[in-house]
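Long-time lurker, first post. I've been practising inverse folding by hand and with some scripts of my own, and I keep getting stuck on stretches where the structure tokens seem ambiguous. Below is the full token string for one chain I'm working on. Before anyone asks, I'm not after the true native sequence, just a reasonable design that respects the backbone. If someone could post their per-position residues I'd love to compare against what I wrote down in my notebook.
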């Protein structure tokens, strides 16, 4: 019996919401919007309405479509606004300097969905998220850890009180009610998503942000629109891989796998695979850091980095027996990734983020919405590739991935984890596609991280202990500067994937490092993991 629909998310409640919409005959996009609203409630430390999003949407037989729902710097977010500072603050009103694009992205995606078929009413898509926020969410270990980590920094702020219980950090198993956020979701359900930018909700948010010292004004809300476009792509021996262009690091994710496709024949062991992927990552990050910036500032098309000549030049720097010295500048980040496949074979790869845990730490008192701090990726050095300028988009670690394989399979995959996103994507893809590991095992197996991830400052190679036990010595012999961390470590991200086979069968898997679940089913038969 063939499985025909599937959904995966790093929180089980959001995954259930998405799967329920698919079971009703909703599109992959409608399922994703419903789940995006739900996970904004259930995982408020990692993503939310005050953050950004990126979409990769695939219809069978058509080139995928992208949606860039990244906010840009406010009109008043000038270097003069930060006069006397060496860098943009990571928390507080001055950290809340870019527009939140996620909700606009939801609307752009629904516009596409409504061209496919008549839509499920927005009130029904958001209803579960509204109820979850109103009646309360159960605090997960991930949320508790983030609360404890940020308590000294954010706990004393009166506006942050909705994310505390009796003034104290959140503990696993406690129930947290977010009733102001519930009311905001209800407002969007009734008035439409555009209310976030050009309605009462926009007015409320603009006032609260101004009161907090943010440079964002109501005109920034009025002027914002998410943008549709075409993905970057590269063809390898396995098939054609797709990802987002600037301002994301999607090109790095594509470079890693395109390079591995060229060098994988050099290896014949697990240690060889891990080493080669790490070395491919180094080449990809060097290119990323040199070129990726706001789309309007690019020195040339990023597709040039995916040309045969460019990839051949990078391949020349990869050796099977020796690690290249590191580090280069690392990029942090914190987010969620989700994937979906509907009964018509339409697939979505989606990522949504606040950047750091709880973003800027600014919680709008009248709406309950946490604002992102993505703008801290800007530099106050006017000569820097990421120099702050109103209307520009900051660098994004976010990049949802999608592949159309030579054997007819189609794969939506991704993860959270800042610098780790391209690396984890590569690990999952290489294990499952090149080395024929089952999908769930490809995600569960021990992983590695070169550089810095969310909440971390070191640039060395971190390896989970279960992976270190069988590849660690071989990696050290090649010169890798390694640190061993606990197995099944959230540091390595929350990965997931949905695969649709040529016969219509669908499988999905999620990461045991998260609180997620994957569902896939056909009428009369269902599975979950």
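-- Answer (accepted) --
I ran through it position by position. Result:
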């Amino acid at each position: 019996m063939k499985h025909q629909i599937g959904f995966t998310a790093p929180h089980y409640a959001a995954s259930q919401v998405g799967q329920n919409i698919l079971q009703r005959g909703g599109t992959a996009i409608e399922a994703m919007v419903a789940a995006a609203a739900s996970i904004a409630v259930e995982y408020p430390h990692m993503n939310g309405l005050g953050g950004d999003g990126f979409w990769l949407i695939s219809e069978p037989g058509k080139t995928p479509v992208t949606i860039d729902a990244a906010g840009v710097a406010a009109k008043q977010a000038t270097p003069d606004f930060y006069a006397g500072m060496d860098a943009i603050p990571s928390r507080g009103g001055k950290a809340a300097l870019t527009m939140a694009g996620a909700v606009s992205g939801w609307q752009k995606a629904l516009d596409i969905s409504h061209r496919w078929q008549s839509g499920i009413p927005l009130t029904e898509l958001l209803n579960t998220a509204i109820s979850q926020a109103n009646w309360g969410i159960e605090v997960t270990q991930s949320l508790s850890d983030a609360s404890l980590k940020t308590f000294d920094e954010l706990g004393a702020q009166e506006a942050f009180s909705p994310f505390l219980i009796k003034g104290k950090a959140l503990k696993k198993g406690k129930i947290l009610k977010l009733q102001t956020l519930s009311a905001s979701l209800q407002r969007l359900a009734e008035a439409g998503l555009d209310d976030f930018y050009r309605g009462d909700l926009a007015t409320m948010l603009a006032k609260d942000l101004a009161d907090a010292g943010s440079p964002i004004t109501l005109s920034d809300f009025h002027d914002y629109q998410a943008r549709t476009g075409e993905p970057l792509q590269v063809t390898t021996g396995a098939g054609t891989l797709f990802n987002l262009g600037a301002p994301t690091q999607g090109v790095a994710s594509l470079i890693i796998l395109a390079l591995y496709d060229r060098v994988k024949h050099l290896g014949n062991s697990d240690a060889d695979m891990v080493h080669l992927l790490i070395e491919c990552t180094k080449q990809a990050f060097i290119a990323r850091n040199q070129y990726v910036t706001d789309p309007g500032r690019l020195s040339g098309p990023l597709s040039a980095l995916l040309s045969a000549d460019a990839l051949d030049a990078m391949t020349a720097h990869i050796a099977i027996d020796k690690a290249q010295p590191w580090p280069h500048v690392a990029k942090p980040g914190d987010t969620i990734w989700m994937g979906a496949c509907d009964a018509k074979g339409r697939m979505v790869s989606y990522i949504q983020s606040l950047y750091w845990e709880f973003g800027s730490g600014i919680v709008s008192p009248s709406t309950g919405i946490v604002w992102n701090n993505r703008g801290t990726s800007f530099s106050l050095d006017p000569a820097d590739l990421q120099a702050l300028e109103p209307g520009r988009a900051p660098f994004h670690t976010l990049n949802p991935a999608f592949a159309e394989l030579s054997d007819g399979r189609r794969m939506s995959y991704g993860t959270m984890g800042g610098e780790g996103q391209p690396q984890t994507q590569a690990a999952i893809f290489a294990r499952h596609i090149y080395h024929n590991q089952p999908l769930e095992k490809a995600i569960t197996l021990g992983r590695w991280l070169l550089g810095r991830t969310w909440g971390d400052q070191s640039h060395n190679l971190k390896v989970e202990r279960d992976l270190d036990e069988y590849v660690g010595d071989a990696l050290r012999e090649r010169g890798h500067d390694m640190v061993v961390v606990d197995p099944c470590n959230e540091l390595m991200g929350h990965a997931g994937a949905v695969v649709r086979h040529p016969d219509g069968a669908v499988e999905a898997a999620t990461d045991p490092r998260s609180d997620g679940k994957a569902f896939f089913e056909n009428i009369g038969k269902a599975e979950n993991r």
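A couple of notes from the structure itself: The longest helix spans residues 270-291. Residues 295 and 301 are 9 Å apart (CA to CA). Happy to go over any region you disagree with.
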